[in-house]
Amino acid sequence: MHYRTLGRTGFSVSEVGLGGEYLEGKSAEQVCAVVHAAMEGGVNILDCFMSEPNVRTNLGRALQGRRDKMYIQGHFRSVWENGQYGRTMDVQLVQQHFEDLLRRMQTDYIDIGMIHMIDNPAEYEALFQGPVMEYVQRLRQSGVIRAIGVSCHNPVTALRAVQTGLVDVLLFSINPAYDVLHEDAERPRTVDKTLFDHMERLNGINRVREALYRCCEERGVGITVMKSLAAGALLHAETSPFGQAMTVQQCMHYALTRPGVASVLVGMETVEQVADCLRYETMSEEELDYSFLFSQAPKFSMDGRCMYCNHCLPCPQHINIAQVQKYLDMALLDGVSPTLQGHYDSLEQKAGDCIACGICETQCPFSVSIVERMQKAAALFER
């Protein structure tokens, strides 16, 4: 395993990191097996944004006797209410759920206190002019957290956060589809070929994202990466906006070649997936090369594609929106198999329970037409 310094924190983190999202709903035994396999392979950074109590408890069990071998990136603002994930700026709720994280993870400190999902101007203003940041800074001063981070999907908001000087770590969504401008977008006047050396045949690089990566590098803000696989969309030609499939390792390599990036946090739920991600460390440059992806400069967009992150929750009908969306995409790709129908039927709340209130769409960072897709899912699975 190769290690990189995470910006000005000085933390030496593994290039391959563990995203804990898909461990939610898994048994304690499976969580332990995945965490232990990752650590035995040299992984030493774990992201836990999940507020669901059981997954926090299981991760704490997995780290018993190993806590000092793992950097934990734990999130503020992620809450569990009425049996669902949600987000809040209520500082009392933020404190309550952060203290719950400490208890369940069986630790008295968190290495990276990550402020969860600051994606728009309203959230930015509420954070940097409100009590949540004051609370986080007090924890930093007392040593309960060792660094302050912000997670974000929006490069404009992320850049503003980095420029405050208060942020040590940025958790940001990076993959080639997000980094390239749409054909009808304004073309940048110059493209830094050393930054995106394989993209000169495309329409250009999103200028704000380029500026963000450079700003992080210059200011010593370490970047940890989410969404490197675009929820698996880049792994299949049928679902990739490029029309060509990448490997897991090529997606990881793309992110790790961006300025400022220290670790790619890949969601893993099986020991086999851990082993596959660890193969990155032994692959040749030829195997990791992703330049083929940009050979035809296709028109594409990732807007409207579900990333299965459930940031659209809470749902007043208690629908597991991400799971419904995943089953819908699987059905549209390969049809409704008996096994897939069985998985869908096991959901407590289904797409047909959607009341089209639209709350989820206002919270989705990827502009997914959730209500319309719920109707499609109900038509496919509930006939």
Automatic annotation (TrEMBL):
Residues covered by the 4Fe-4S ferredoxin-type domain: 345-373
GO molecular function, one term: iron-sulfur cluster binding
Keyword Metal-binding among record annotations: yes
UniProt xrefs under InterPro entries: 4Fe4S_Fe-S-bd (IPR017896), 4Fe4S_Fe_S_CS (IPR017900), AKR2_Oxidoreductase (IPR053135), NAD(P)_OxRdtase_dom_sf (IPR036812), NADP_OxRdtase_dom (IPR023210)
Keywords for this protein: Iron, Iron-sulfur, Metal-binding
Gene3D superfamilies the record matches: NADP-dependent oxidoreductase domain
Pfam families: Aldo_ket_red, Fer4_17
Source domain of life: Bacteria
UniProt key word Iron-sulfur: yes
SUPFAM superfamilies: alpha-helical ferredoxin, NAD(P)-linked oxidoreductase
Name of the protein in question: Aldo/keto reductase
